[in-house]
Amino acid sequence: MPSTRVVHGDDLLYRFFQEALRDRPELFAAVPQMLVKTMAIWLPLDTYFRWPVVLPWVVRDASCRGNRRKGIADEWSSPDRRGYLRDDNSLIKSLPRALAVRGASGSHIHGARMGSEFVASHVWRTVKHEQLASRVPLLNSFVPNVAWLPGQVAKLTDREGGVVQQTLQAMAWRIYRDAAVAPHLAVVAEEAWALIPDPPIEIEPFELDELNWFEATDGFYRTRATRLRAVIDALDAVHEGRSLPRRVVTTRYAAGLPAVKQGTRADLRQFLGRFLES
Fold first, then answer.
1. Which of 74, 189, 193, 233 could form a disulfide with 52 if both were Cys (CB 3.0 to 4.6 A apart)?
2. Confidence at residue 18, expressed as pLDDT on a 0 to 100 scale
3. What is the rounded distance in angstroms from the CA atom of residue 27 to the CA atom of residue 23?
4. More confident residue, 20 or 113
5. Using H for helix, E for strand and C for coil, what is the string for 108-143?
6. d(CA 145, CA 56)
7. Which of 116, 117, 134, 114 is nearest to 55 (CA)?
8. Which has more confidence, 182 or 34?
């Protein structure tokens, strides 16, 4: 007797966008844009102005998580060979966890906080670089390149060239491309944008108050500054032969930083110094 075929819910959602919208061109742009507009949560323009790259010392490295059954040690938050903290997207995902959300008038999400089943999605995966965007320090936490989406919708944005991914990219471009950046960070932001391809599709105009935004607090910005300074101070301490505190962002990062090559640490120190206001 032939086995019964199993259908997964995520597959149905994917097939809807790949087939139903393809066969209904009048819906092809409208539905994905409505989906992103109502479900994506963005970091506010003030964050882009003050911290266009919110975690410049962090890169994504899926291999950093261990596997106890296979005897592979967990290396999350240890420095890579360039000195950047290795993350599996946990730090990006949790960035706005404590922040309230400001949604459109009457929105279900307005005034709430982000709960479970949200994913921090990289808007652009493939860019004008040999590596994926999340492996590039300028782009891994570049504000226009991160949106928080329900998990099932986030999976659709991982489909390279898919309509939901392209819609998300076009919306991020429309939101942030001409937004202001602090003068000392303008060059940094432009270097990041130079790695991002132009929007692949045209979308309908929208107002910013139709979208969902995290409401950044003074504490959110203080944490960003404190952690940046902690990493820079640690790099300076290693260079000068001084001991490090037990914890620099994490204990693994503090323990591993002295093993990074001196010239590489100097490159990282120079890169991070660009984010300091002179």
1. 189
2. 62
3. 9
4. 113
5. CCCCCECCCCEEEEECCCCCCCCCCHHHCHHHHCEH
6. 13
7. 134
8. 182
Query: What is 131-198 written as a DSSP string?
Result: S-GGGSHHHHTBGGGEEEEEHHHHHHHTSTT-HHHHHHHHHHHHHHTT----GGGHHHHHHHHHTSPP
- Which residue has 């599996």 as its token pair? 88
Whole-number Å distance between alpha carbons of 145 and 122? 5
Task: Please report the pLDDT score of residue 67 as a whole number.
Answer: 72
Strand, helix or coil for residue 261: coil
The pLDDT > 70 percentage for the chain reads 89
Q: Once rounded to an integer, what is the mean pLDDT over residues 181-188?
A: 97
Q: Which amino acid is at 40?
A: A
Q: SS3 for 4?
A: coil
- Residues 6+ positions from 226 with CB-CB distance below 8 Å: none
What confidence tens digit (pLDDT) does each residue in 120-157 have? 999 999 999 999 999 999 999 999 999 999 888 888 88
pLDDT tens profile 64-85? 887 777 767 889 999 999 999 9
Domain ranges of the chain: 9-55+95-216
Amino acid making up residue 76: W
User: Are 66 and 60 spatial neighbours (Cβ–Cβ below 8 Å)?
Assistant: no
- Neighbour-count burial for 189-225, b at 16+ CB within 10 Å, e otherwise: beebbebbeebeeebeeeeeeebbbbebeeebeeebe
